[in-house]
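Lab notebook page, bench 4
Experiment: in silico fold of construct C2
Operator: M.H.
Input chain length: 540 residues
Purpose: comparison with the prior construct
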Amino acid sequence: MDLSKLITGIADFTDDAILITEAEPVSGVGPRIVWCNDGFSRMTGFSRADILGRTPRILQGPDTSPAAKAKIRNALASWTPVRQELKNYRRDGSAFWVDLSIRPVPDDDGMFRFWIAFQRDISDLKAREELVVRHLTELEASRRELSIQRAQAEAANIAKSQFLANMSHELRTPLNGVVAMAGTLLKTPLSASQREMAELIAASGRSLSGILSDILDLSKIEAGRAELDAAPFSLRDIVSAAAEIFRVRADDKGLSFALVVGETADAPVVGDAVRIKQIISNLVSNAVKFTRRGRVQVTADLTLSEDGDAVATVVVEDTGIGFDAEMAAKLFVRFEQGDGSITRTYGGTGLGLSISQSLAQLMGGTISAESTPGVGSRFTLTLPLQLSAAAPTLVPVAQEAPLATDFDAMRVLLAEDHPTNQRVVRLILEPYGVDLTIAADGVEALQALEQARFDVILMDIQMPNLDGFAAARILRRSEASRGLPRTPILFFTANAMPEHQQEAADAGGDGFIAKPVTPEDLLRGITSVLGQAEEIITFE
């Protein structure tokens, strides 16, 4: 068998192109092609007759890389093998990619007389690479765009939060004058018509305060900034505190009001007691508001498991106006109430249930509702909780704190720059014999503390020259370095965002009460921080 024919047959069988050129280039044109296999013809469309005696430049075109061609020329000039990916062109002008490998071929005496080139078509591979590169480029562009949008969204959220904080401060300051002065006015002798007007002012102020709190809660939820503060508590205590607030309103409307709490509800569990109470309060408030006759019943129970899990279930039932399926679909939609007539008749923003559902879901729970129009409604709050080995510790609130028995001669320092709030606090405290000193900013407050001792400090946050946080930190450092007893600080402020409460605690505050306040709120706040340890108390 002729071995050369066998080798040629094998070479022709492969799909790779094989090309042999003379070693010595023709001046100015390069080495001439002396042989090619059938695979070369299939790959390029050139027959042997087309290319024999010509140079490989016949395969090059406008997009063949100059750098790649230079690399090949340099390798040929130094008689060294070379491998290069290269874009070539077929006889019909179409481009294709090859993985090109060239090496010199020595003869029997070791002299290089030929070059042999192997070409493998990698067009599909390059197309996939280009697709991957294009996708990666698009992904990187999308990532940069998302990064820009995220930065813009974060900047917008910061601006929104700052705006809300400023609006909260600006709205709560005059609102504090309305609520507090109405409460103080109601403690004076009034005619029946005057008392009715003062009560209307007070109720309107409380309503505005509730709407403002709802809007702030909504903004925190929308921004993903609603935070939970888990601590041990008793479900019985939370439900009882929330429900009992509305028992008086139910009695005033002639409604039967029942509270049924299961025995297991005494078990200490871990969760955000303040938020849970907020949800229950909203459900009970709605039940009393939308019920004209009949009853309201609150039922609470705790289902315990051996692995330490617990599920709290609070059911609020009423015999109120109820709602149909169409209205049910809107219950938890923000700013929606069943229909426009409900808003006109009963008032409200339509935010309460939406906020409550969002808070319940944030805690891993949910609120469900059942109702029959004209018969009544049943709302069920279900929350997963964890059993706690520690004793329950409720966050005190102003309504639950007892009043001090004697304010007479109590020395109180008020750090407050707004004249209206200065006047409000003076009018509230003077009838109780409180010795009140007023400082218009943090600097004046520290100067007053250098000259005298005070039983309690009422500290605003947003003040000129030196804000309340900075003043509190300076005071705490001074007390520690001089071995002085700790003076209770009650932050009394229109800055009511959660971050303000946390910063108040970090600055050394003992309590935090958000404006607007009633006279009772302020007096209970002062009472509660007197003699307190370093744990801050938040008053709602």
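Observations: Residues 123-185 form the longest helix (63 residues). The mean pLDDT is 82.
Next step: discuss at group meeting.
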